[in-house]
Each structure stands twice: as structure tokens, then as C-alpha cells.
Design a protein that fits this description.
This protein is an alpha/beta fold. The chain has one domain (2-160): Purple Acid Phosphatase, chain A, domain 2 (4-Layer Sandwich). It contains 3 helices and 11 strands. It has helices at 13-25, 62-71, 98-105, and strands spanning 2-6, 30-33, 51-53, 75-76, 80-85, 88-93, 113-115, 123-127, 130-134, 145-150, 155-160. The strands form 2 sheets. It has a 6-stranded mixed sheet, covered by helices on one side. A 5-stranded mixed sheet has the order 5-6-7-9-8, with helices on one face. The longest helix is centred in the first third of the chain and has 13 residues, at 13-25.
Length: 163
């Protein structure tokens, strides 16, 4: 299973749609947005296939985002959620709650993956047995980027999205 990961769109609907379309063209079967959606219309980019998102520190209207997401069949995980996809346990949060991120990287049993955003800086690292991935950002980043993770072979690719 291939997972498309994006984050920090900050209300930029058009780049979010381009990013989601690019991920799907690359084979993404599920999209995960790691927060700072900042507008219900950005969620349209996730519609049309299995998708989920978490709230970020700039998602001030959580109830409205949740209502809209439900109306277009996108899963709202709140500020933190766990997904089981392709036989893997994936923790998703925005990344602004540092104590929570610390607990997630030390969880027992460990998560296979932790997806975050917030920093607008792409990274891929291991913390113990957990692979922690930040896809970068689609706003306020030198290189607007998303990531595609193939759960079958643990292969991650990152690519730029043009503005």
C-alpha cells in the first residue's frame, strides 16, 4: 500500500489539489494530511479517495473542519490519531505538541511510523523502531514538498510541488 503524506497547506487550496493529484498519480492509495489545513476548502484536495487529516496549531475552527470533512468522506483524527494501514500502525499528529511527539516515539508497543508536520522542514529519521516522517510543507517552505511511502517495502520518496 502506498501512502501520500502532505502537511502545512495553510489554506492554499490550489497547491493542495496539485499535491494530492500528484500523489495519486504516483500511486497513493491513501492520503494523510499532517495538519494546518487552515480552510475547509483545502479538504477538497483529499476527497475522492481514502484520506485522513489531523488538526494543526493554526486550524482554529476544528468543529467546522470536522463537519466539512465528514460531508466529503474524509476522516478527521482530531489532534492525534492512529491508523492501521497495510499491516502497519501509523501515528499522526501535527508535531507542535512536543511532549506528545516524545510519547509517541517511545510508545509500547512502538508505532511503525509517526507522521508529523509543523516545522515546514522535511525529514525522515528513526527513533528506536519508529520511522518518523515529516513531508515538509506546501506553504512557507523554500521547497514545497510532499512524500510518498510504500508500506510494502518501506520506501519513501519525496518530491517538490510547483506553486
Amino acid at each position: 500500500m502506498k501512502i501520500g503524506i502532505l502537511s502545512d497547506t495553510h489554506g492554499r487550496r490550489e497547491i493542495a489539489i496539485r499535491a494530492a493529484n500528484s500523489l495519486r498519480e504516483q500511486g497513493a492509495e491513501y492520503l494523510i494530511h499532517c495538519g494546518d489545513v487552515c480552510g475547509a476548502d483545502v479538504l477538497d484536495a483529499l476527497a475522492g479517495g481514502p484520506a485522513a487529516f489531523v488538526f494543526g496549531n493554526n486550524d482554529f475552527d476544528g468543529p467546522e473542519l470536522r463537519r466539512y470533512a465528514e460531508s466529503i468522506d474524509v476522516t478527521c483524527l482530531g489532534t492525534f490519531g492512529v491508523l492501521e494501514l497495510g499491516g502497519k500502525r501509523i501515528a499522526v499528529t501535527h508535531g507542535d505538541d512536543h511532549p506528545l511527539v516524545g510519547r509517541l516515539t517511545r510508545a509500547e508497543p512502538p508505532y511503525d511510523y509517526l507522521f508529523t508536520g509543523h516545522t515546514h522542514v522535511r525529514h525522515d529519521r528513526r527513533v528506536g523502531p519508529t520511522r518518523w516522517i515529516n513531508p515538509g510543507a506546501l506553504y512557507r517552505a523554500a521547497r514545497k514538498s510532499v512524500a510518498l511511502l510504500d508500506l510494502a517495502n518501506d520506501e519513501l520518496s519525496s518530491f517538490a510541488v510547483a506553486e
